[in-house]
Amino acid sequence: MRATLIMALAVLLYVVHRWATNKPAVTLPIVLSGLFVIFVIGILDSFTRTQEIARGFAWLFFIVAAYNAIPAFTGAVRSAQGGASKGAAGEGIQLPGGG
Question: Is the pLDDT of residue 87 over 90?
Answer without folding.
Answer: no
